[in-house]
Predict the structure.
Amino acid sequence: MSCAWRRAGAAVLSGFVLVVPLAAGPPAAAAPLPAADGRGWIEEDLGRAEAVGAQPAGGGLRAAREPAPGASLRTAAAPAPAAVAVFGSHGLTRPARAVDVRAEATAGAVLLEARGVRADGMWTEWRSAGPAEVPAGAARSGEEVGGRIRLPEPVGRVQVRVGFGAAEPGGAAAVLESVRLRPVQRTAPDAPDAPASPPATDRGPGTAESPEAEAERPASGRPFSARVFATRIGHVGGTTANGHRVRENDHFVALPSRRGLSERGGGDYTVRVCAEDGERRCAYAPVWDVGPWNTRDDHWNAEREEWRDLARGLPQAQAAYEDGHNGGRDGFGREVTNPAGIDLADGTFRDGLRLPTNAWVRVDYLWTAEYAHPAAVTAAPETQPVPVRSGPGMSHAERGVAAHAAAVDVACQVPGDEVTGPQGASDVWFRIGPGDYIPAANVSGGDSAPACREGEAGP
């Protein structure tokens, strides 16, 4: 099972970004790398990485001989890195537009991803170098692989995530031996790239403070929204793509791209998913898995990673099921038997939306809008989501749930019933969506939001 990523061949490998050894030349889709002169390079500490499917081994990280993470994938034939290492973020002295990332590993398949913090303090989506295939046996201990990762906009903080290969059949498990990165300020073809010299700090998300950060901002106001078909994940006891162990009545979702995959336990990428038929109910849930059919289909983006012939908001699996796109098959050649564009964990499916069966839902991809007053939901216990109500008080109808760690943008605040929660006792309630209210006692952040105007429901 742990060897499926490498055994699957070129068609399956297309689901992941791979980079070739530098000796063989950079990937065709990646920008040329500057000389490795050591200026501005940051060496990552493998011992401090958040590792999924890997164990420390002689100063490196060894991939475990277990099924690759990804509970939502339709079959075991769909690929996933055998192990993933997520490193701490690094604050920059100047905004960066790209990141050079290099790694040493004993397996021939390495997935390099990076992201940064936007001017509004929220993360960009993950971006990756490549794709390119790695010749069998090309990567050896002491040989680097690498690529330049262009970010969606200038960022003031960067973070790297590395997936590495499965164990060879009958051989030793893959070992990640080193990772280093270098932020790049300029990426124009007619201008030399100027590497930064950021401090090697390890702090949480921050704000790009430089006035030079004239970013290509996400659309202000409403996030991108799409009507997609939802199915239930199940797989209790399985492991998601970010390393979360699936619980009974869990609250998270899976989307068919790693670009919007949150860290384990985090809610950097959160959706608001609402039932369309009958009673209006919405669930605010973090993206913790990849699927249900594809792994490179960020259909919510105008410039999607794959399937750019399809309209924005149309999942490839839906197009395959309804219109025979790609011969009615997904990116791995499997016959698509339903049009699912999102998978819901059991708690989100049953308790959050109260769906009796698979159904069409409305999904708002919250991170695609600029956040004015960002906040995170804090539930106690974390396994129990916070009820969302139609007004600022316990007597108002419960109309959905907000999962622990879900990232929300507080539109306004209003006094109501006093509630005691993880943030203490407070009579303040936050409006986080159209007619959706939760107590401030269950929210970290959002205090800067203005007072709600009388009769205001808002977006």
Residues 372-459 form one domain. DSSP finds four helices and 24 strands in the chain. The helical segments are 4-7, 10-13, 316-323, 346-352. The chain has three domains: 4-184, 220-363, 372-459.
